[in-house]
């Protein structure tokens, strides 16, 4: 009986997990398209998609556990299998024991394995993007969002991937440090080997007036028939690592070490009389992060219980709408408290309280529901 329950539950769990991941991947299409636009080959694109999966599993596994348990016990209830097992002397609690142990095992694996894998995959994703930009460092000029962020403008006819030629390349680059504005016009720009080649290049640079009280400055005009610039000179610009590491991207053992470092930094700044607002917020996020992971990991067990007891129907006349609505409401409570805690993780104790709130509520509901089923109430 144990093997039958575990095998049937695992089959449904895998089907639900694959389906939900496929659905969630559609929300990442913009990121995937942007990665392809960097000039990534097919194998790196496939790897990039795979790196998205561990992070999605954090939410997918608890939801799949709910759906799988509900589906399994609803089917067994409808087919009469549960009636036969209960007629043989099996209680509802004894039927749930094998899957309770199995879901607790999955939760432990998720807590001590999946989150660390997810952290490594997030880091590998960023490294993969940097590697692609290293191979095609000039593809950043085709990213309008990048230029808008830096206050620049760009017009490009063609492509600047290796071996291809852009007919016209027009760049308008501000220099806030030197209070200058540069306009670069390149005909027949192309990348070749490790350098940028251009024919008939014109650079117009503005200079501030000297002395400063004069109304107008000067313009510097430079022309060149041919120009070659090493690609290495743009690597610093194209690989600007603006990605900020958050607690979600760190393995659990590193998380503890980082937390101690932040505490020491706070003590040092307090001793010197400096502000600790930023460090306190970061410490709060690192404090609440282990509880967030525990919340999702234990959710596999909690939502299994909810799905199992709401999937059983002892009364043939029970409303199907009410029968389906119960697990939806329970999952809504689970995900609602999770999002609330995650959005206020800078208030560590409030976030932890929210993380610890839903499990007792849902487990209590599942226990009472199981007691009602034992008495034959639908």
Which SSEs are present, and which pair or pack?
Elements: H1 2-25, H2 29-37, H3 42-79, H4 81-87, H5 92-135, H6 144-149, E1 153-158, E2 165-175, E3 180-192, E4 195-207, E5 218-230, H7 232-238, H8 252-272, H9 277-311, H10 320-343, H11 348-374
Antiparallel strand pairs: 1-2, 2-3, 3-4, 4-5
Helix pairs in contact: 1-3, 1-5, 3-5, 3-9, 5-9, 8-9, 9-10, 9-11, 10-11
Describe this structure in words.
This protein is of the alpha+beta class. It has a domain at 145-236. The protein has helices spanning 2-25, 29-37, 42-79, 81-87, 92-135, 144-149, 232-238, 252-272, 277-311, 320-343, 348-374; strands at residues 153-158, 165-175, 180-192, 195-207, 218-230. It has a five-stranded antiparallel β-sheet. A hairpin with a 4-residue loop joins β2 and β3 (180-192). α8 packs antiparallel against α9, α9 packs antiparallel against α10 (320-343) and α9 (277-311) packs parallel to α11. The radius of gyration is 29 Å and the shape is elongated. Mean pLDDT is 81; it is low at 235-242.
């Amino acid at each position: 009986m144990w093997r039958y329950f575990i095998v049937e539950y695992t089959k449904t769990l895998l089907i639900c997990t694959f389906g939900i991941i496929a659905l969630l991947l559609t929300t990442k299409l913009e990121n995937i398209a942007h990665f392809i636009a960097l000039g990534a080959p097919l194998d790196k694109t496939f790897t990039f998609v795979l790196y998205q999966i561990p992070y999605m599993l954090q939410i997918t596994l608890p939801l799949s556990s709910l759906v799988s348990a509900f589906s399994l016990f609803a089917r067994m209830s409808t087919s009469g299998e549960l009636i036969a097992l209960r007629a043989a002397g099996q209680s509802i609690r004894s039927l749930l024991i094998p899957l309770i142990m199995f879901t607790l095992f999955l939760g432990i694996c998720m807590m001590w394995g999946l989150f660390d894998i997810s952290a490594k995959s997030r880091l590998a994703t960023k490294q993969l993007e940097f590697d692609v930009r290293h191979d095609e460092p000039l593809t950043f000029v085709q990213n309008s969002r990048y230029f808008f962020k830096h206050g620049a403008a760009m017009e490009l006819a063609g492509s600047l991937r290796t071996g291809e030629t852009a007919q016209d390349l027009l760049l308008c680059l501000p220099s806030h440090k030197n209070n200058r504005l540069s306009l670069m016009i390149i005909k027949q720009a192309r990348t070749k080997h490790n350098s940028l080649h251009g024919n008939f290049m014109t650079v117009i640079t503005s200079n501030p007036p000297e002395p400063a009280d004069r109304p107008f400055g000067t313009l510097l005009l430079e022309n060149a028939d041919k120009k070659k610039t090493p690609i290495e000179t743009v690597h610093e610009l194209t690989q600007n690592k603006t990605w900020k590491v958050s607690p979600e991207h760190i393995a659990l053992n590193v998380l503890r070490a980082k937390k101690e470092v932040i505490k020491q930094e706070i003590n040092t700044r307090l001793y010197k009389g400096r502000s600790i607002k930023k460090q306190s917020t970061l410490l709060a996020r690192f404090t609440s992060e282990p509880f967030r992971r525990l919340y999702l990991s234990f959710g596999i067990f909690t939502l299994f219980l909810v799905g199992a007891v709401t999937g059983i129907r002892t009364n043939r006349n029970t409303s199907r709408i009410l029968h389906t609505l119960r697990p939806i409401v329970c999952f809504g409570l689970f995900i609602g408290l999770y999002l609330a805690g995650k959005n206020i993780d800078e208030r560590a104790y409030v976030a932890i309280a929210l993380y610890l709130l839903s499990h007792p509520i849902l487990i209590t509901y599942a226990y009472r529901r199981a007691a009602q089923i034992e008495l034959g109430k639908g």
